[in-house]
User: What shape does this take?
Amino acid sequence: MIKPGTDNGWPGVIRKYASFLPVNATTPVVTLLEGNTPLIPVPRFVAAIGGNFDLRLKYEAMNPTCSFKDRGMTMAITNAVARGARTVVCASTGNTSASAAAYSARAGLHCVVLLPEGKIAHGKLSQALLYGATTVSVQGNFDDALRIVRELGETGLVEVVNSINPVRIEGQKTAAFEICDVLGDAPDYHFLPVGNAGNITAYWRGFREYRDAGLSRRVPRMMGWQALGADPIVQGHAIAHPETVATAIRIGNPASWSGAVEAARDSGGQIRSVSDEEILHAYKLLARTEGVMVEPACAAPLAGLIRCVREGEIPAGSVITATMTGHGLKDPDTAIRVSGFTPKVVAATREAVLGVLDL
Ligand code: AN7
Assistant: This one.
């Protein structure tokens, strides 16, 4: 007999962690059963970088739209429905728009996304278009698009679902809960990419709330990584024209700037930056040592970890977690471009295939 129900044994992050979230029994939850993503040990990668610690990747690519944004978006769209909104809007480097478009479709809301023209990875653009969002390419960068979204929000005609909407951060903190649930405690260090800085703010809140609730005993050092050229927090001032291969974090004036600074300071962690070259090296190394494909932004914290190993900063035996925020297939063009390989074209015979193999 097939059991009725819709949750496959996992109810999505709102129902799973309801006691930590601004919801109640009558909240009209909009979910795609996001969350419950794997925490993947990567010992071959650790060996390749000369580390002596336990590294686990929180693989957020396994969410319904293949990024961590779904944790915050289930909250934001649920809240929009509860408030009677009809149109939601966001600015995005790609993943927020994909997630907003999907959850809006699920809820029957009109979704408008503002994207920096020409700087969106193709997988993400395909999602917004297919989910049916009204997709607007702004002739400017993410920061320009977010400024316009704030102005649209002030008209009262639309609900903003960027992380300046505080319920987004509430939803995203559930990833920290899941890490503690799997490990039995918080790790020694948590590494993650920093763009608009909502996620580092959310994790830090999540780790603290779990400790304060007695569900973990400690909190990790928060290690946030920006891309050189798009590293306003590291530089200490906004960057007018941010540039990096990691388009997800190509942001010059992060909305949650102070949240990121506090997370690093209060946890004894750091916010630093790594170059595009270091990012692409880590991106390829992870794929080739572990079979784990992530988008370039996720490789920023991995490149940062490589730096920390080189500088002898990580005590032996540490437990380290790192958020892999989005799937590698989001940005197939970068994967193809930097892979270093092209398909070998041969005649359709066994001899021709053997001829190009080094067996
Ligand atoms: C893969 O989608 O800002 O520091 O508009 O897509 O919380 O901004 C995406 C950000 C890291 C940075 N990794 O997180 C957007 C957007 C990936 C991302 C970040 C983003 P925040």
